[in-house]
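One-letter codes give the sequence; the fold follows as tokens. Both lines appear below.
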Amino acid sequence: MTDEEDSTKLPAQAHGSFGYHVAKASLGAFDVVLPGLGYTLQQFADTVVGDPLHKRQAEWLSGLATGLAEIRERLGTFDPASLNRNEDFLSAVAFGMEAARRTHRAEKLQALRNAALNIASGMQLSDLLLGSFLAHIERYSPAHIAVLRALSDPGSNEELVKYYESVDETVSIPYAIGLAFPEIGNVEVDIILYMLGSDGLAESPRSVGISKAAILQRRTTLAGEAFLKFISDPT
């Protein structure tokens, strides 16, 4: 895979490179709510007005700026200016800006915002995890995230609890997830569970022969828990 194909990398600096300009100059856009960081969000928005895809980016950046302001208010020691030197944050912003052009899904845009805010708040990830987690956000549908959360805390899902109470000694995790999320569809549930297992975020469930107690046991891995924390709102 070349650097051009790897969307998790910070775009290389080049004349006219929109991705690099966004990554390095977007910190200035936070001047709207965080004075002293350079360009204003309005100045940035003026450069993309008229292009619906770029306007998505401006809206995403505005939400990020609001989150940063909330973090600064909550953490008295938080220095927004330091983010100019935080390469992980800049990479997350660059990735989020480009991803915002490709999706209108509020859940995915929120997850991308939360990821950048968590890094700004001090969360540190290895290069492997950061690149993988950002790629997961873009690849996954909202249904992937909902199922992963259910696997992390089955007891909080009313339908899973009902299933647990209704079965005898053996259970089927895919069938239980299908009951919990009837809007997803059985074929889609199988694909989601396979993907989460292949990506190392959840245990790969067997179709039959699981003890009843397993239905309410956490089935996410350490990486799965770290991913959920990465995309959770830190504010």
In short: The CA atoms of residues 64 and 113 lie 6 Å apart. Residues 18-127 form one domain.
